[in-house]
Amino acid sequence: MGVHFCGIVTISVLIFAPICLSLADGPAATAAVAGRSSSSGQINSNSVLVALLDSHYTELAELVEKAILLQTLEDVVGTHNVTIFAPKNEALERGLDPEFKRFLLEPGNLKSLQTLLLFHVIPTWVNSSEWPDHDSIESTQHHVTLSSDKLSLKGLPSGERVVDSAKVIRPDDIVRPDGVIHGIERLLVPQSVVEDFNRRRNLQSISAVLPTGAPEVDPRTHRLKKPAPAVPAGSPPVLPIYDAMAPGPALAPAPAPGPGGPHHHFDGMSQVKDFIQTLLHYGGYNELADILVNLTSLASEMGRLVSEGYVVTVLAPNDEAMAKLTTDQLSEPGAPEQIMYYHMIPEYQTEESMYNAVRRFGKVRYDTLRLPHKVMAEEADGSVKFGQGDGSAYLFDPDIYTDGRISVQGIDGVLFPVEEVKVTEMTTKTRPAKVVSKPRRGKLLEAACQMLRAFAQDSRFTTCQ
Ligand SMILES: *[C@@H]1O[C@H](CO)[C@@H](O)[C@H](O)[C@H]1NC(C)=O
Ligand SMILES: *[C@@H]1O[C@H](CO)[C@@H](O)[C@H](O)[C@H]1NC(C)=O
Ligand SMILES: *[C@@H]1O[C@H](CO)[C@@H](O)[C@H](O)[C@H]1NC(C)=O
C-alpha cells in the first residue's frame, strides 16, 4: 500500500507543487476562521485536507467531520498553507478520558469540539526543516492556531520535537502543496476547552445527573456514533452526506496497484492499446479511439508514463460530443493533443471515488496533464459534472476501463479550460476557451521534467532524459 501510494503522491506534489505555489497569495495569516474567505469554494484533489480525510488519522478525520469543520478548513486552505498536528488514533480511542470524550461529542458542546480541533491547525507552513532547533537562538516558536489559542513548537536537546506537551512522532507524515501533517502522540487541549469541560462537570455534579454508558462505538467502523444534530425542516443536512452514507469507499482516489517492482516494469503500451481496444468495443467512442490511434505519439507517451508507474484517468468524450467539435477546433496544429491532455487527470480515479469526492466537497478541482489547467467537478443530477456552464459534461459511461493504472470515464461533452479571468472579477458567463493553436505537444512533459529536475527527482521519470 505504501509503495503505490507514494507514486501518486510523487506525481501530484512534484509536478504540481510549483503551480499551486504560484497561485498562492495573501499576507501572513491571522486566525482566518470567522467568516467565509473569498476562496472559490473548490478544493484541489491533492489538498492536504483531502489527504487528511483519507489518511490513517481516521479518528481525527472523523472528529473534523463531526465538528462540521470541513467548510471552514476548506476556506482556510484556499488562502493559506496549513500545518496540522494529527493525534494518532490510539490517543483518541483509548488515550482519552471517556468522560472528556463524551463531553466533546455532546451536540451542545460542538463549539468546544471545534475549538479543540482548530487548536491543531496553524495557518502557516512548518515542516520538520523549519522546526525550531534546540541550539538555535529561537528554540521555541509560538504560533497562533485557528482556534486563536497559541501553540509552542520546540526542539529538545534529545533531538525530539514537541508541540506544547505532545511529542511529534511522525514529522512530515503527509505533505501536500498546501499543507503538512505531523503525527503527534496525544491530543492537544486548549485551556478554554479544559475550562468548558470543568464547568460542565461541576454543573453535572450539582444536578447529580450521572452520565450513563460509554460513548457508543459502531462495531463495524470502530468509530464513535453520534446522531446528526436536528436541523430546521427544509434546510440542507448539517453533517456532510458522508455521515449518512454507509461506511464505504474512501473519497480519495481508489488505490492503484503499485509498480511491479523497483524498476517499474509495467507494460504501459499494452495497457494503452488495451484501453483503446476497449473503447472501440464499448461503442460510442470511436472518434476518441481514432484520435488516440492516429496520434501515436500521444498514445505512446501515455504508455510510457504508465510503464513508469504513473496513473491516469481519461475523461473520454463520446462520439456525439466529439461530433460537435468544429473542424477549426480540430485542425489547428496540436489541437487534438491539447484537447486530449485536458481530458487526462494524473490520478487514478473511478466513478465512485469522484462521485464521493464531489458529494462530500461540492466542488473538486482535478489537475490535468494540460498544465496548468484544472478541470472542475461537481455533483449534479446524481452524477459528476465536469467543467462549467455551456462547456460542461456529465459522467455518462462510468468505468469503461479500469485496470488500476488507467481509468477511462465516458463523458458527454468536450471540455475546454475556462479562460483565465481575474480571480476577483469572475465573469458570470463562461465560454469554452479557444484551443491554443501552437503545436505544443511535449511542452507539458518538458515543463514537468524541469520541475522534477529542480527537485532532483528525474530518476523517477526517465522520459525526462
Ligand atoms: C504556500 O507555501 C509556499 C512555499 O512552500 C509559498 O510559496 C506559498 O506562497 C504559500 N501559500 C500561501 C497561500 O501562503
Ligand atoms: C520544508 O519546506 C521547505 C519549503 O517551505 C522545503 O524547501 C524543504 O525541503 C522542506 N523540508 C522537508 C524536510 O520536507
Ligand atoms: C485518423 O486517420 C485516418 C487515416 O489517416 C483518417 O481517415 C481519420 O480521419 C483520422 N481520424 C482523426 C480523428 O483524425
Automatic annotation (TrEMBL):
Its main location: secreted. GO terms for cellular component: extracellular region. Residues 1-24 form the signal peptide. Residues 44-188, 272-400 form the FAS1 domain. It comes from the Eukaryota. PROSITE patterns: FAS1. Keywords: Glycoprotein, Proteoglycan, Repeat, Secreted, Signal. The keyword Repeat applies. InterPro entries: FAS1_dom_sf, FAS1_domain, FLA15/16/17/18. It is found in: Secreted. May be a cell surface adhesion protein. Belongs to the fasciclin-like AGP family. This is FAS1 domain-containing protein. It comes from Nepenthes gracilis (Slender pitcher plant).
